[in-house]
Design brief:
- There is one protein chain.
- With 272 residues, this protein is an alpha/beta fold.
- The protein has one domain: TIM Barrel.
- Helices cover 39% and strands 13% of the residues.
- It contains ten helices and nine strands.
- The chain is globular and about 45 Å long.
- 44% of the residues are buried.
- Belongs to the metallo-dependent hydrolases superfamily. CpsB/CapC family.
- Keywords: Hydrolase.
- It holds the Pfam family CpsB_CapC.
């Protein structure tokens, strides 16, 4: 598996507090079946003032520490980018990092206040050739009231990333239900750990992948944690990547209840 969203770099944000914690997180990831982790520290003006050179230096040091400790985890970098007014300019100038120097980047909306003009901002970055990956929309406090906005964002070309722990109920029943709803809609592109520590925010994916497979089928679960993440690392065009696909209930070990038609199906009038 490939984890595209993890706060494993030591002492750089609210993730791993020190090198020992970071190395133990890496060991946990490897034991869970993760072969590559993209380290994505926060870039949050006023709180986490990380820069591309600083992140690059931290990756070089951590890669050397992994090698010295004999931990077979490949790492790269990006950032969990809090939405800023000069987002597009920062991407173009290289002041804001994309994932593994690809066209894809993590786009973190505010947690408690809906972002005015979010769709316009997404339109501008997409029109400029970037693919924003909206991180953990299921955990936003206002997501129910703005749910359709996230579906519209996907229809425009944005991708959605769900947190593995959210799907397992680690953020509460409400967040778990919203995660399942996004999956049932057929709009989730990626599953990532958003790992921060060794306790309640661990850098693991296998259990969440198994939970996703019960909802969307084994093939799609594999795409969530391997195929699409690999396509991002290879910087493939989004049109060349398999879109989210929910298998019909008969092909899943599920309760057989009818699901909400996916976004494409609803756009075409399916299920009416």
């Amino acid at each position: 598996m490939i984890d595209l969203h993890c706060h494993m770099l030591p002492a750089i944000d609210d993730g791993a507090r020190d090198l020992d914690t970071a190395l133990n997180m890496a060991r946990l990831a490897v034991a869970d079946g993760i072969t590559t982790t993209v380290c994505t520290p926060h870039i949050y003006p006023g709180l986490f003032e990380n820069t591309v050179p600083g992140i690059q230096d931290a990756v070089v040091d951590f890669r050397a520490a992994l090698k010295a400790a004999g931990i077979p985890l490949a790492i790269s970098y990006g950032a969990d980018i809090q939405v800023v007014p000069d987002l597009l300019q920062g991407l173009r100038a290289g002041a804001l990092p994309t994932l593994h120097n690809s066209r894809y980047f993590l786009f973190e909306p505010p947690h408690h206040v809906a972002l005015p003009g979010m769709l316009d901002l997404l339109h501008n970055v997409i029109a400029s050739g970037y693919v924003p990956i909206i991180t953990h929309p299921e955990r936003l406090s206002y997501v129910e009231d703005h749910y359709e906005q996230f579906l519209e964002a996907v229809s425009m070309g944005a991708w959605l990333q769900i947190t593995g722990g959210a799907l397992l109920g680690r953020f509460g029943h409400r967040v778990k239900a919203i995660s399942e709803r996004f999956l049932a809609e057929g709009v989730v592109h990626l599953l990532a750990s958003d790992g921060h520590n060794l306790k309640n925010r661990t850098p693991e994916l296998s259990e969440a992948r198994a939970a996703a497979a019960l909802l969307v089928g084994e093939d799609e679960a594999q795409r969530l944690v391997q195929d699409r993440p690999r396509a991002i690392l290879d910087d493939r065009e989004p049109g060349a990547v398999s879109p989210p696909h929910v298998q019909p209930p008969s092909s899943n070990k599920h309760d057989g209840k009818a699901r909400t038609p996916g976004l494409l199906g609803r756009l075409l009038g399916a299920g009416r």
